[in-house]
Amino acid sequence: MKDITKYQGIFPAFYACYDAEGGINPEAVRALTRWFIEKGVKGVYVGGSSGECIYQSKEERKVVLENVMAEAKGKLTVIAHVACNNTADSQELAAHAESLGVDAIASIPPIYFHLPPYAIAKYWNDISDAAPNTDFIIYNIPQLAGVALNVPLLKEMLKNPRCIGVKNSSMPTQDIQMWRDEGAIVFNGPDEQLISGLVMGAIGGIGGTYGAMPELYLKLYQCVKEGRLDTAVEIQNDCCRIIYKLCSGHGNMYAMIKEVLRKMGCPDCGSVRAPLAELVESDYPIADECVAMIQAAIAKYC
Fold first, then answer.
1. Less Cβ around it within 10 Å: N or C end of the chain?
2. How many CB atoms lie within 10 A of CB 88?
């Protein structure tokens, strides 16, 4: 039986790290990886939505993963999202990820063209075949991908012994229960409902706001595991309020998170890549409010 303990816990979705000219900043990638190691999270999810993968070339995505692995190997569980919108590029990234020794690769379905389930399964299995010694995780995010995982498709994928589970970013927590009943491990995706996902049986969480406040999500996870649900609910509610504040500016949420991280002592990760919106002057007081909210919650619970 496959050891799944390395997937139990809190996994921040890794942020894109850019230099002043908008290129990948390898040193910032390494510094952010060290930051997460110091915070005590279980692992990182590299190259997904928070990593702005659809706005990066496959060469850039390789550089990011290489620098994450240079710091994380043996210290963090690393899940590398390798999907591109064609099979060949995805396979190239999958093989590259395996060569670096990642713990798992992951993939959304192909976007734009609405493919039938058998074509999606072939896409995923072809990607998995390019990394034959590495676990494979389905990334279900129908609100962005335009395609939703269902039970027949999951059953087909679980015929592949490397396919171990689902990063589930659909909103219904019922989906977590369904995927688990089929034998998959499940990561909760929506940060606003981590407690709900864990109660429904998620093995852990992968989230885009975890990096801004890892202490809070680690404490929430601990409280759920210890049966202290009243406290877990309080932490979740405070995390949600912080998320709403992070999303309340003109700039994209990830631009806001990177500014919050800078203010909290994390190395500079740059801004976001167009067409994502950068911060404007009126956003900086909002970032200050976010920092104050995060620090107050950490003082209260941690």
1. N
2. 10
- Within 10 Å of residue 2's Cβ, how many Cβ atoms? 10
CB neighbourhood size of 103 (10 A): 18
Q: Which residues contact 297 (CB under 8 A, 6 or more apart)?
A: 213, 216, 235, 238, 239, 242
SS3 (DSSP) at 192: helix
Known catalytic membership, residue 139: yes
Query: What pLDDT sits at residue 146?
Result: 87
pLDDT at 187: 98
Model pLDDT for residues 77-136, shown as the tens digit of each residue: 999 999 999 999 999 999 999 999 999 999 999 988 989 999 999 999 999 999 999 999
| Continuous segment of H or E residues that includes residue 106 | strand 104-107
Calpha distance 57→118 (Å, rounded): 27
pTM of the model: 0.97
| Residue 19 predicted with pLDDT over 70 | yes
Catalytic residue of the set 15, 18, 123, 139: 139
The residue annotated as part of the active site, out of 167, 219, 245, 258, is: 167
Residue 195, CA distances (Å) to 173, 219, 240, 296 in order: 10, 11, 11, 20
